[in-house]
Amino acid sequence: MITQDIFVTVDNVIFTIINDKLQILFIKRWIEPYKEMRALPWGFVLEEETLEEAAYRELEEETSVKNVYLEQLYSFSDIKRDPRGRNISVAYIALVAREHIFVKGGSDASEAKFIPVDKLPKLAFDHRKIVDYAIKRLKRKLEYTNIAQYILPTKFTFTQLQNVYEVVLNQKLDVRNFRKKIDKLWIIKATGEKEMGNQYRPAKLFQFVNKDLEIVEIL
Amino acid sequence: MITQDIFVTVDNVIFTIINDKLQILFIKRWIEPYKEMRALPWGFVLEEETLEEAAYRELEEETSVKNVYLEQLYSFSDIKRDPRGRNISVAYIALVAREHIFVKGGSDASEAKFIPVDKLPKLAFDHRKIVDYAIKRLKRKLEYTNIAQYILPTKFTFTQLQNVYEVVLNQKLDVRNFRKKIDKLWIIKATGEKEMGNQYRPAKLFQFVNKDLEIVEIL
DNA sequence: CTAATAGTGTCTCTGAGACACTATCTA
DNA sequence: TAGATAGTGTCTCAGAGACACTATTAG
């Protein structure tokens, strides 16, 4: 029998939209290596849990969260990715609506916070590579699935939906064309309610028809 | 420090086309569990190699191969996937042209052979799940990249190219529409040569313009 | 000249994108 | 009634798919 001295970990790329910007959760490292730098929340995989369970457990250590979407991204295995020893990390993407996530109190150890993707500092380990890959996957998936629902509140306005697309794809979209396209896909339906309380015309509230991830050619 | 007793392995889903059929390489297991059943070629990840290197090394243990395309598929981690102990397996997809792969002599131990995807027997472990996922990925990737080149000889006819699409997507395609579409993508070019030796009109030979994987909206 | 596959063009329909005005609410 | 955002329709162009015949070779 072979012996292996390899540690298996999970890294989470947790996306949400705050202030109309796509943001990712980072902790601040308080020990070497990469002390003081930002890093993705990570954790060891325990013997009695799957990778997905490990990712979910890790997620809950840093945040209070509900209605989260979790998807395996890729496994990273560069020999030197952690200078302390051989490590293989399975990265996960998490998508959450702003309303459904709460970052746990900044114990001095972790100090977790969301940072906009266009303002990322230099990151620890190979986390920049992971983040880049995660963004690419998210963009792609937005275009052929109903994944947008996981980053939105259950009930949302058409404008909010469009904003998800604009912020993730990082480009402005035409209001009329966007609505036409979404309408034809039948992935959302009106709730009959309206968003009140603003000093302008109230917007209709919508919800997604299918609460599971669905492949739909979109955009 | 945590101790982990988890073995990390790689499983290879090796695709090629033989007799106009999409086929995958399997070995026959000669020990329990799943003795006598078909399984994907697999191997342990060594401490001084990346996952991709492990997949490639394993590939070379079962076959002589050149010009192979290798891509990480997904990591499988069901607690009970191997009854002998905790195991996490990173699956890889390999694509090879029939001409570029040779299955090593059937030592009684392994007896490796290609089996058409529509005639798979019951497979060992969770390999059915892996295979299904691999086929799905391959189909999808065929539609938006130039990945077909890796399953074709360097020079090929338009008919052969169309056959790759038909066999992988498992549907007949219209000759004229297919040619029009491929033409417009500028991903292949005529070599000027023709395929001779047949008792009918000789077909022009083509080759791919870009030898690297390229994202191109296709079909 | 027969058998077998290579290779080509047109029409219709649908989806994508460009583009500007009216509707509805609060203060 | 001013300010602010919600919500809507038309035209043009490009790509997708349906469809049938001619071209070229070996024997």
Task: Please give a quick description of this structure.
With 219 residues, chain A is an alpha+beta fold. Helix content of chain A is 24%, strand content 30%.
Give me some keywords for this one.
homodimer, 219 residues, alpha+beta, Nucleoside Triphosphate Pyrophosphohydrolase, Arc Repressor Mutant, subunit A, two-stranded antiparallel sheet, 11 strands, DNA-binding
Describe it.
- Two copies of one chain form a homodimer.
- The first copy, chain A, is α+β, with helices and mostly antiparallel strands.
- Chain A has two domains: 7-143, Nucleoside Triphosphate Pyrophosphohydrolase (Alpha-Beta Complex); 147-208, Winged helix-like DNA-binding domain superfamily/Winged helix DNA-binding domain (Arc Repressor Mutant, subunit A), CATH 1.10.10.10.
- Chain A is 24% helix and 30% strand.
- The first copy, chain A, contains four helices and eleven strands; from the N terminus they run ββββαβββββαααββ.
- The first copy, chain A, has helices at residues 51-62, 127-144, 158-169, 175-185, and strands spanning 7-18, 21-28, 38-39, 42-44, 63-65, 69-76, 87-95, 101-103, 113-116, 188-195, 203-208.
- In chain A, strands 1, 2, 3, 4, 6, 7 and 9 form a seven-stranded mixed sheet that branches. Chain A has a two-stranded antiparallel ribbon with strand order 5-8.
- The longest helix of chain A is centred in the middle third of the chain and has 18 residues, at 127-144.
- The relative contact order of chain A is 0.17.
- The model of chain A has no long low-confidence stretch (mean pLDDT 94).
- At the A-B interface, strand 6 of A face strand 6 of B.
